[in-house]
Amino acid sequence: MMIETFPPERPFLPASLRWRLMDAVEEGAAPYGLPTIDVSVDGGGWWVASLLRMQGGTGYHHRTLRAMALRLRGGRAVNVPWMELARIGTPPPPVRFSDGASFSDGTQFVGQACVAELAEPVRFRDDEATIRILTPHQLIGGDMFSIDRGPTMGDELHGTDQVEALGDGRWRVRIGPQFRRSHPAGTPVNFSDPKCAMKLQDPNGGLWPTFERNWIARADALFVEKMYPGEAP
């Protein structure tokens, strides 16, 4: 069954949104009198997204919330979009249309879509990559991107920790979390609309709306990254 994308529109727009990269850290032993050593034991962490106070004010919204709650029962995956105003570090400068025209008031057209690909192959659990950006965008660190794993598995989500411009549109980046699987050179890298394949933390309670006296429906959802065999962090 093909994976769908959690709609970034009402009634699924949250009043409060938080993404976190969770890590399992174990406190290791240390010589007497010295601080203990914290060691990561999860292989890179996993994503958690809290979407709180989603609101539906009409019967259509109520049914839409219930339908999504039913579809996500049993741990079914859904692509949750990384929702924020800034998609990638520095947007490209304004440009004219391909025929040289601009808007009637002289305003130039600004293209926001970022086209990028892996310049070199990456392996499972790699935490670095070389990315080629084919449009005039700049990375600054903290940039989010995803890689599509196919129509039934959805996207894996990553953020850039450190970036280095190599020239000719190529960037060397350190990422978190580590790659969930190997990807060949030329694999598309989605900076413009990153997503993460996730499942409801509480498949029995999440997204089922609570109704107030004015029949406004409110719903909260906690999503955790969907892992597949061989990908567990």
Structure description:
The structure is a single chain. This protein is mainly β. It is 6% helix and 36% strand. It has one helix and 14 strands; from the N terminus they run ββββαββββββββββ. The protein has one helix at residues 59-71, and strands at residues 16-22, 25-28, 37-40, 46-56, 78-81, 116-118, 128-133, 144-148, 155-167, 170-176, 188-189, 195-200, 210-211, 217-225. The strands form three sheets. Strands 1, 4, 5, 12, 13 and 14 form a six-stranded antiparallel β-sheet that branches. A six-stranded antiparallel β-sheet has the order 8-9-10-7-6-11, with no helix packed on it. The protein has a two-stranded antiparallel sheet with strand order 2-3. β13 and β14 form a beta hairpin. The longest helix has 13 residues, at 59-71. The protein is elongated. It starts with 15 loop residues before the first strand and ends in an 8-residue tail after the last strand.
